From TrEMBL:
This is Alanine racemase. It comes from Neisseria leonii. The active site is at K33, Y251. PROSITE patterns: ALANINE_RACEMASE (PS00395). SUPFAM superfamilies: Alanine racemase C-terminal domain-like, PLP-binding barrel. InterPro entries: Ala_racemase (IPR000821), Ala_racemase/Decarboxylase_C (IPR009006), Ala_racemase_C (IPR011079), Ala_racemase_N (IPR001608), Ala_racemase_pyridoxalP-BS (IPR020622), PLP-binding_barrel (IPR029066). Catalyzes the interconversion of L-alanine and D-alanine. May also act on other amino acids.
Length: 353
């Protein structure tokens, strides 16, 4: 059997949830959109059931999958609905839709609700992607609050750069938000993603929304010891050979040996979600010791340096996880941990409690 495994440590997921909830205070949504950032939404939500105050997904289809698998906690649709007809399912499944633009608001007000609905009303406090402008927010809030079907409104916004503590953008967004809601009736609010939750105590309000840190990746790329990686992508060396100095390795001959080098071939490639653009030098761990990939990543294989007596056919290679953080690989490949985690696939998913 091909040795590539994607290990998902559900005990780390639960510990991270509790840690983040404690840091944030109040309630915390476990963000399980995009198949729980590649970890498997149903398994992760089931592991957190009874513990998580609620879940958040990107669309109705993702919410349906959770409901069909026995998740009855609140589920927030982070982007709301994509057409008015979806409100019928939102109603039936008791989902909590975000309302972030005018047509979503009007369609919600026009829907013939069978049950009352909790709405997350989104403000664009500066990111300029979705949400009502601060000067339009009160009108949207008032329209919702006058509907007899609306049981509650959570005021929310999303930060554009909470993982960048230098720029002051998060403070500006918080100010814009607080000013725009100052004259509205009190009620629950939600500002924090993972980065804000960890770094901005003033942003911790009634509901946090944790994704990346829940999966154990530090938004500040610093291996925060309070959270533990949930995913470990591991495979094995299945061939090795010794190359003379000045020999090329792999497609495009992008890497040449400088000295006599033992090369291990690992069963993992870009079809498994390992980034093809990861250059020679990107870290891996061979039997727990740091090494590096050399040559180009192919579809099903990649090549690593094995030196001294270390590493042989059968050696375990951690692509990311504990010895090599997913952030390190993402940095080498010019992307972010989010993308790598979401792309992990084709290997055998092995869940441990
Ligand atoms: C995805 C998402 C989150 C989670 O963000 P992380 O950085 O992964 O914690 C929070 N809020 C909204 C609106 C999102 O879309």
């Amino acid at each position: 059997m091909r040795p590539l495994q994607i290990e998902i440590r559900l005990n780390h997921l639960r510990e991270n949830y509790q840690t983040l909830k404690q840091i944030h205070g109040g309630k915390l949504l476990a963000v399980v959109k995009a198949d729980a950032y590649g970890h498997g939404a149903v398994r992760c939500a089931q592991a957190l059931a009874g513990m998580a105050d609620g879940f958040a997904v990107a669309c109705l289809e993702e919410a349906v999958q959770l409901r069909e698998n026995g998740i009855d906690a609140p589920i927030v649709l982070l982007e709301g609905v994509f057409d008015a007809a979806e409100y019928a399912e939102v109603d039936r499944l008791r989902l909590w839709p975000v309302v972030g633009c005018q047509w979503q608001l009007e369609a919600l007000l026009n829907h013939d609700w069978q049950q009352s609905v909790y709405v997350w009303l989104k403000m664009d406090s500066g990111m300029h992607r979705a949400g009502f402008f601060p000067h339009h927010y009160a009108a949207a809030y008032t329209a919702l609050s006058q509907s007899r079907h609306v049981a509650g409104i959570v005021k929310m916004t999303h930060f554009a750069a909470a993982d960048d503590e230098e720029r002051g953008m998060t403070e500006m967004q918080m100010e814009a938000f607080d000013l725009a809601v100052a004259d509205l009736p009190a009620g629950e609010t939600s500002l924090c993603n993972s980065a804000a939750l960890l770094a901005y105590p003033q942003a911790r309000r009634d509901w946090g929304r944790a994704g990346l840190a829940l999966y154990g990746a530090d938004p500040f790329l610093e291996n925060d010891p309070r959270i533990r990686p949930v995913m470990r992508m591991v495979s094995r060396v299945f061939c090795d050979r010794v190359l003379q100095p000045h020999e090329p390795v792999g497609y495009g001959a992008t890497f040449y040996t400088k000295r006599s080098t033992r090369v291990g071939v690992v069963a993992c490639g870009y079809a498994d979600g390992y980034p093809r653009c990861a250059p020679s030098g990107t870290p891996v761990a061979v039997d727990g010791e740091k090494s590096r990939i050399i040559g180009r990543v192919s579809m099903d294989m990649l090549t690593v340096e094995l030196n001294g007596s270390h590493g042989h056919v059968g050696s375990e290679v951690e692509l990311w996880g504990d010895a090599v953080s997913v952030n390190e690989v993402a940095a080498a490949a010019g992307t972010v941990a989010y993308e790598l985690l979401c792309h992990a696939k084709r290997g055998r998913f092995v869940y441990s409690e």
